[in-house]
Amino acid sequence: MTYVVTDNCIKCKYTDCVEVCPVDCFYEGENMLVIHPDECIDCGVCEPECPAEAIRPDTEDGLDKWLKLNAEYAQTWPNLTAKRDPLPEAKDFDGQTDKLTKFFSPKPGQGD
Predict the structure, then answer these.
(1) What phi and psi values does residue 64 have, to the nearest 5 degrees?
(2) What does the pLDDT profile of the chain (112 residues) look like in tens digits?
(3) Strand partners, 4
(4) Domain assignment of residue 93, yes or no
(5) Residue 73, domain extent
(6) CA–CA separation, 102 vs 82, rounded Å?
(7) What 8-state DSSP symbol labels residue 85?
(8) 92 lies in a domain?
């Protein structure tokens, strides 16, 4: 099992989860974060810290595409280990649906 970041992170990018991760397995894209599934130790401390409730265990049904996306982009995006401010539009986009097809950016973020 691992945890994955799902579509509600897109255009929000809260980083409360990054701050509590004991193994620094978060990677930063332009408008979302991902978890490296091979680095995640399945501790679960990140899940309750996400204000957007975008982090889920990969054992939940329907998360295969998110596991694949997290694994793919964790290979190319920079590591993020410190909390930052969310995106300015985070409150407006929190809870919107179908953000993957409408707003996802494959561009990397800044990282540390």
Answers:
(1) -60, -45
(2) 899 999 999 999 999 999 999 999 999 999 999 999 999 999 999 999 999 999 999 999 999 999 999 999 999 999 999 999 999 999 999 999 999 999 999 999 999 9
(3) 56
(4) no
(5) 3-81
(6) 28
(7) P
(8) no
Classify residue 95: in a domain, yes or no. no
Is residue 16 assigned to a domain?
A: yes
**CA-CA-CA-CA torsion sign (109, 89, 84, 68):** negative
CATH number at residue 38: 3.30.70.20
Long-range pairs for 51-54: beta carbons < 8 A, 24 or more residues apart = 51/12, 51/14, 51/16, 51/86, 51/94, 52/8, 52/9, 52/12, 52/14, 52/90, 52/94, 52/95, 53/8, 54/5, 54/6, 54/7, 54/8, 54/9, 54/12, 54/14
